[in-house]
Amino acid sequence: MRSANRSLRALLLWRMLLVLLPTLLIGSVLSYFLAARGVVHAFDLGLLDDATDLAHQLHRQAGEVVLNLPADARQMLLSNNEDTVRYAVWSGDVLLSGDTALVNLWRLEASDAHEFRVLKLDGNNYRGVLLRDNSQQQPVLIAVVQTTRGLDRILRDIFGSVIFLGALISLTALVGVAIGIRRGLHPVEQLRAEILSRSPTALHPLEVQNAPLELQPIVHSINELLLSLDQSLERHRHFIASAAHQLRTPLAILSTQLELHLKEQPREFHAVLQRLLATVRRASHLSSQLLSLARLESANEGETPMQPVALAAVIRAAVANYVVAAERKRIELNFNIDAARVLGQAILLEEMIGNLLDNAINYAGEGAHICISSSTGVGNVVLTIVDDGPGVSVPTLAAMGSPFFRGDATDSKGSGLGLVIVKEIVRLHRGSLQFKRGENNRGLVVEIHLPLV
Amino acid sequence: MRVLLLEDDEELGAAIQKSLAIAGYAVDWMRDAKTALHAIGVEHFDLLLLDLGLPDRDGTSVLADLRQRDWRNPIMVITARDAVQSRVHALDLGADDYMVKPVALDELCARVRALIRRQCGATANTFTLGQLEIDLQGKVAMLNKRRIEFSRREWSVLEYLALKTGKVISKEQLIEAISNWDKEISPNAIEAYVHRVRAKLHDSGVEIRTIRGLGYMLSEDNAFSQ
What does the pLDDT look like over B168-225, one tens digit per residue? Predict the structure, then answer.
């Protein structure tokens, strides 16, 4: 998991280093070059000083330019711990003093008073200056050169120091950043620990006040999730309790019936068995409805494969099972179906229409009329099931479709799940469902909107 | 009529066998797929009642296997799996009907009767419906040994509805089924034919019900009564 989902801490650290390390590197390089330039400049100025000192020693003697350099001054000029200093003073091609090897080693532009140069003599690196002196009648050139051993050593020292300092700063920054990130992410760790330490049933919301600003949306979303989990858990608890009660009822009736009839005469057994059969059928109807509902509730919109379905064919298939039941109660079934095709699952739609018909036949009463009609609108089909029975009260209307709600029904036939199943099927088809009262507050109108193909 | 019952549950198997026997079918009851498939290979059965949860094989594979072998007689699936997917799957594989346990025996018998009748419509010539004896070849219906006279069109209506007993048939379906290519029948004419056929079927135990706005349905009296 850790390798697939990079940790936030590693990500932050990586990003910081990406900026920090190049900055440090550029800083080190710049400071090295600045320091090196200063040192070289000072070295060059030293050379120029020496050359100028030599120029001051030029004199005129019997019309000739001569260099009057006392022995100790010369000694001082040439003395150096580790470097070799060499010089030459000349006018034209005449060497006045110093080293012949340096004479006219390089040329000085007419516009320049002096020039520095890097050169190689006898296999050694030198840095030198060439100075022109115009105080005499003819120009005198003075060259002073010095090996760069000392200079190189100083530059190496500076380089080493810069590297050492850079590394030290990098390390400090790294540790600082790591500690900072750890501190910064502490609230996330705290949140994680709190969620982990919870028992699965502790669904009370997390503390929002203590969370930093950036974490508040996350805490809010988690709290919303916790709330909806809590509510759904509560609904399920309630559902299971009601379901257990509902399932116990037919069993209780069954055992009472059995006890009662065990005392009767054997020739009445046929009627008794009929009654027992009805009770068992009721229990098995209930359990199959519970199963069907559990399955529907766990299905999500978009996960159920949908196909274009001709509504008329589905209604024809659903109605066949209720024709006899309707006739027995002298209920007239009427249909007014247009040729709409909806996107859905035929078996589920059939079950939906069957449940609604079953309801209407059971509650509309003897001699009632039931009309199922469909009309195609813009993008959807409106399926309406209307009966002209006694209808329902307003509070009942609002509660219809809640699990195990049986309205004003006192008979023992229904399970209180039919409309819940209808509701779930409508939800899976991305439709909408409405219960209304009919004209003059009589009868019931069920209106279902389903999306067209 | 000979029915093969493939069911491994003793209680349920015995009950189904008994009630189908009372309804006049010869029932061979087998408890595993291997024996049943062998029997189907060597003997003739008019219908197979198939439980999907079998000890040696999954019932859906038996279903697929039989249809693969081109066994064309009706197959009725009986199962405890009532998920929509498994129902659709079984029907897709070639089951003709599907019932979820616990089954009501009356309804099972009615559905078996309907399946066999539908099959007979294609293969045999005579069958009974209520008190009515119908001869498709001779285009004759007998009630209590007396012949009922039908016109050619009336007979077409009766034949079509009888072969689809227990199903709602729309007026358009009926028109399409009995019209000649050169002569379209009007909806009013259909109503008249149905009316006349219905009158002739009086007291025959067979009824044509009008479902207003949806069509007609032929049913035997109390076929689904419970």
Answer: 999 888 888 887 666 778 888 899 999 999 999 988 889 999 998 889 999 887 543 3
Sort out which chain B residues have CB atoms less than 8 A from A316's CB and list them.
167-170, 214-215
Which candidate from A315, A320, A335 shows the least CB-CB separation from B166?
A: A320
User: Which fold is adopted by the domain A303-451?
Assistant: Heat Shock Protein 90 (3.30.565)
Cβ separation of A348 and B84 shorter than 8 Å? Answer: yes
CATH fold label, A8-158: Beta-Lactamase (3.30.450)
Tell me which fold the domain B2-123 belongs to. Rossmann fold (3.40.50)
Q: Where are the beta strands (DSSP E) in A312-416?
A: 332-336, 341-344, 369-376, 380-387
Q: How far is CA A149 from the centre of its chain?
A: 60
Closest-CA distance, A253 to chain B, in angstroms, reads 19
Q: Is A321 on the interface with B (CB under 8 A)?
A: yes
Do the Cβ atoms of B82 and A292 come within 8 Å? Answer: yes
How is B131-185 classified by DSSP, letter by letter? TEEEETTTTEEEETTEEEP--HHHHHHHHHHHHTTTS-B-HHHHHHHH-BTTBPP
**pTM, whole model, 2 decimals?**
0.61
A56–B contact, CB cutoff 8 A? no
Residue A295 has pLDDT above 50, yes or no: yes
Beta bridge partners of B210: B216
Q: Tell me which residues of chain B, numbers 145 to 184, contact chain A at a CB-CB cutoff of 8 Å.
A: 166-170
Interface probe, candidates B11, B81, B84, chain A, greatest A C-beta count within 10 A: B84
Nearest CA among B168, B90, B160 for reference residue B118: B160
- ipTM for the predicted complex comes to 0.70
Over residues A136-166, the pLDDT tens digits come to: 878 889 999 999 998 999 999 999 999 899 8
The CATH-assigned architecture of domain B126-220 is Orthogonal Bundle (1.10)
On whether any CB of chain A is under 8 Å from the CB of B14, the answer is no
- Domain A213-294, CATH 1.10.287 — does that match? yes
Range B109-115 average pLDDT: 86
pLDDT band at A431 (very low <50, low <70, confident <90, very high): very high
| CATH 3.30.565.10 in chain A, residue ranges | 303-451
Chain B residues with CB under 8 Å of A372 CB are 213
Percent of residues in chain B assigned helix, strand, coil, to nearest 5:
40, 25, 35
